[in-house]
Structure formats: C-alpha cells, structure tokens
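Lecture notes, unit on protein representations.

Consider one protein chain, 423 amino acids long.
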Amino acid sequence: MSPRELLLGSFRSALAAADPLKVVPAHLPRPPAGRTVVVGAGKAAAAMALAVERHWPADAPLSGLVITRYRHGLLANRVTVVEAGHPVPDESGENAARAIVRLVKGLTARDRLLALLSGGGSALLALPAGDVTITDLKAVTRELLRCGAPIQEMNVVRKHLSALLGGQLAARCRAPVTALLISDVTGDDPTHVASGPCAPDPSTFAEALDILARHGVSAPPAVLERLRRGAKGEIAETPKPGERLFERVENRVVATARHALLAAAQYFIAHDIHPAVLGDTVTGEAREVAKVYAALAREVKLHGMPWTPPVALVSGGETTVTVRGSGRGGRNCEFLLALAAELKGAAGIDALACDTDGIDGTEENAGAILSPDTPRRAAALGLDAAKLLDANDGYGYFSALDDLVVTGPTRTNVNDFRVVLVT
C-alpha cells in the first residue's frame, strides 16, 4: 500500500470514529412523560438529529429544529433542519435561533429538551443580544477570524454578544436538559463546544473586552457598548458554574478528537506501522507547528529517535493562521505548505492534514497531502512554497498539484487531523 493510500485510509478511520450516526444512539436519554423537543446547532447537527430519529421510539413524541451549515443538511421527518451561514453568521441562523427560543419556552417539567451541539454552533446559533444586530455579529466575527484569535477566545466574545450561548439556552428552559456534544475544541470542555449553550460560562464581559483589545479588533459601536456596560455590571452576566439551573442539565460529550486519533492509530497498527499519538491539543500558528513536526520527522528518519520507522506521527487540535496575504486556504493547507518549505522534499516523509468537517477554512477541500516529490512537481509548475506561504495561499499550491483532499461535508467535526508518515 502506498503512503498516500495509508494516509487517506487513516483519515477515513478517524472520520468513522466521529460519525454521529454511530456515536449518538448509545447516549440517548429515555423518553420523558411528556414531549421531547430536539434543538441543536453545528456542522454535525443534521446527522445527529437523524441519528435521534432513527433510534427514538415511534410512539414517543419528538419534534424540534436544528441549524447546520449550508450544504450540511439532511432530510429528517420529525426534526426540522435549517441551513445557515458559517463561519460568519447570517439572517437564516438568526431566524432559526428565534424559532428555537419559541420551542424551548413551551416546555414544562414533564418534558425534555435534547440539545445536539457540535463545532460551528457558535456562528449558527446566531441570536444577537440587546442592541447588537446580526450585522454587528458579522463584522466582529470577520475581525476575529482575520486576526487569528484562538477559538476559545472567540467564543468568550460571542457568548457575551449572544442571547443563547454561554448557558443561556438552558436558562430559558423549564424542562430537564440533555445536551449531547461532538467536541471540536481542545480539552473537550462543554463550555467551549458551540460556545456552550447549555453549559456554565466562567468567562466575563471584561474578558471579552480584553480579548478585542489584545487582538486589535475594530468592533462596531453597539458591540463595544454592550461589553462595556456588562463589564460595569449594568447588564446581567451569563449563567455561571454553581448556579441552580444546571442541576437539571446534563452535558455529555459523545465524540472527541481523541476518539478519532485512537481509531487512526489502530488503523496504522493493522498495517504494521507504529502510531505515535502526539495528542489532540495541538495549537499555535500553523506554520510554527509545522517547523516542530518537520524537526521531529527528520530526527525519526535520520536517527531512528525517538521511534524507529515506519512511524505515523498522529495529532489533532486546532492551529491558527494570522492572515497577512491575499491567498486562499485554511490552516491545514497552511501547515502542509510550511512543512513542505521545511522538509524540501526529504525522502520517506509524507503527510496529510485535514479538517474532519470536510472544509479547510472556506474552501471546498478538507485539506491536502504532501509527498517527497511535491517540491519537485511544484517547481516544474513555477510554484515556490515559501512565497505562497507568505501569501497564505496553501490552497493555490496544492490545488495546482492536484493534491487536495476533497470529501464534501462529512457532517461531523472533531477538528484537525494530521499525520506525518515516516517510512
């Protein structure tokens, strides 16, 4: 089996371990005496809702609405699926979020709210709070994406501009709440998955203001006014840990990046390749992370340390990209482009980096593949890895080489999946 086939096979194994149709059913609660209303948001929301429908008793009341990204929808019978904007929120998400509020308000203590949450939910569950408008949310989201702020910091800001994030969805509900989460964040803390609509929020308005200032974000006046008033105590904070409302709320993480990495590790073991799982919490600038991985791969290849080849260096997490150029491509293509610039065609080192949601940044590819002959083929086309890296144009580089990995929407999301294969 070729290195390319091994890399793609490991990615398929990772995706299978995070498939909502496989992981959700085992975690479903029993039907209550009254109704069960399903709500949700995220790239996996439609597949999660379908999994619920397939395994929910036919005679038990079930209805609801979930929001997913455009082109991520699925046909469901008992739960309405709405598509909306991501990563920048839009009016479709706002209208759907208002509909969710109406559904939740009608529940009683005899009913149950079943919340299906996954990565992407922060943007999709787009109900602005106070005087903040959807236009304001769009503007501040674009600025946060541009500056390369970590997702956890982005979520702190979004929680304090939202009427549903940061535990506020659960606070609107009088019924018991079961939230099933597919985690796309390092650490798998429910407060960060989709910005924790059903989880306590330890962050504050003051922290949100500090994040905007540190990253030099130019926010709309209504955004700054709300955050400043909140920091002064003029607006109520999001629900905090220890509040009584969470006594009737359960947040259950049903799939994580670690599950996906371990599935990939088993795949490599089955092919007589040692898997070195480097963890699911890798963060930092994609190009800087690539330098570390290049150094480790060279050490393995040249000196057999700390592992003897063949070795698969497997990792997850979420790197960031500070956009300085006008190119195209997400953090996985950026990682591979930086890796190409570092390795310069070193023999016996191949790599794959993909986002498990099937979308690297805003393009149609999940990621790409890097081979030892990549720099040679690129040079023949007049492509310079270092120059394209300066332009943040990983997509252009790997697209020209026909080395993009295109899966289409996977309808799951446990963040990035990286393998550096040393043979």
